[in-house]
Structures are given as C-alpha cells and as structure tokens.
Amino acid sequence: MAEWLSLADAVAAHVHDGDTVAMEGFTHLIPFAAGHEIIRQGRRNLSLVRMTPDLIYDQLIGAGCAGKLTFSWGGNPGVGSLYRFRDAVENGWPHPLEIEERSHSDLANAYVAGAANLPFAVLRGYTGSDFARVNDRIRSVTCPFTGEVLAATPSVRPDVTVIHAQKADWKGNVLLWGVLGVQKEAVLAAKRPIVTVEERVRSLDAAPNACILPGWVVSAVCVVPRGATPSYAHGYYERDNVFYRAWDRISRDRGQFTAWIDRHILNTRDFAGYLRLQNESRAQAVYQ
User: How confident is the model at residue 285 (pLDDT cuts 50, 70, 90)?
Assistant: First the structure.
C-alpha cells in the first residue's frame, strides 16, 4: 500500500544512483518539486525517461544527475532550446550524456507495454521514417496473422516513476484530472512509483470515469503544495510563464546556471523554501 512520506524521505528511500527514472506530466502536473529534491540529494548516473523533457530535465542534466536520456521531444515550451541539455550533448558538460531518441507514439506504447509487463511494444509509427538509422533499438517483427512488418521497440519499465497530481485520500488513492499524458501508464510500469500531490483529503469525490491510481500501485505519496510550479495544476494554479522565459537566460551560461542551482535548490531545505525564494525574486522582478 502507498506510504505517506515527506518528499525528502520518499526520494531517499526510492531513488538510487543508477536508477531508470521517469518523471511524467504533460503541460501541467510536471513534478518539479521531486526533480529538485533529486538534485538536492545529489543522485548520479540516472537514466532519465520523459516523452517531453523540458525545464525540469534541463535542471537535472545540468546539475550532473543524468547519464542517459530517453525522449521523444525536448525544449523550453514556447521559448526555445534546453541549453543545459545541449551543452551536455555537444560539449559533455557537466559530463557526457547518452541519448536515445524515440517517437511520441513509440514511448506511449512503450509505457503501455511496460505496464503490461511485456518486453516490447509494437507499432506502425516508424513506417517510412529514418529513426532506425539513429536508434538501433528500433527493430521489426512480422505479424503472425497478416504477414505485416511492424516496428518493435523495448518497453519502458522504470525503477522509479514520479508524477504530480491534484489530491490523494488517506489510503493513498490518487486523483488527477485535466490534460493527461502517460502518467497512469508510467506509474503502472514502474517498480517504485512516487506521487506528489497538492493536498490530502478525506474523500476524493471523484467523477465517474475519473483517472484514479489506487493506493496499492503507489509506493509513496507526498503532500507538496504547488509541487508542479512553474508548470500548472489544473484547478489549483496557473502556469508561471515569466519563469519559462527567464529560464532561457538563466540556462544559457554555465556560471549563471550553477549559481541559480546553488542558491535556489542546493541551499534551500525543501520546495517550500524554494518557492519563498522565488517569490522574493519575483518581487525584485528578477530570477537570479
């Protein structure tokens, strides 16, 4: 059953050096607080998986936590590049980063296959593409019923999946709503799922057909208000577009990035402390 823990204790117990870690969330409910805690605890050589790595993975890569990234798109949404990601790939800073590029449909199917405890996913999505030229893990299989040749790729079965959700009840059952990506599949595919939530409630009061993750599929649940900031949590707070634009400047320069990580993450005790410091920066109209 799900265990209620502080975020620091959940990361300490379940995220280990060398783990494969998926942190999913699409446009909102991105688990920034958990990513910061992984940086704060100094995890290393992680194999990160995310369909759309954005700022949180830029921070993890630049902080030296990642040895590999499996992804299907990467960027600062609506702004531009991920400069710490680019620096790791192009220049090996802070150390070389192995990358495995796959398509959206591939990774979505790979999570589904992982959740079903299958070794690989099957799809038509690579027909006519050049992906196989840059990723030798894209293979082919022949359908035993029709003879059709289909693409096959390894399933994704993370050691740890981390997501953020709106709320959980006292038994650890988790409710999330709004724009959903592959959170459910990524949790079901993982050995040790961690969920951060906005609040703990007596009853979920879930609508019919709502997305509920039962407590028995989750290892740890942590209350972290505003834990998806600067992304948004539908029904709770809006996206911090100012920070996404500011990140373009912060992340371009190694020194400025390192100073930001030191001040805002490594020298804060927890995500609440990070948010207080961010509010001070906003009051000064800067993020430095």
Answer: low
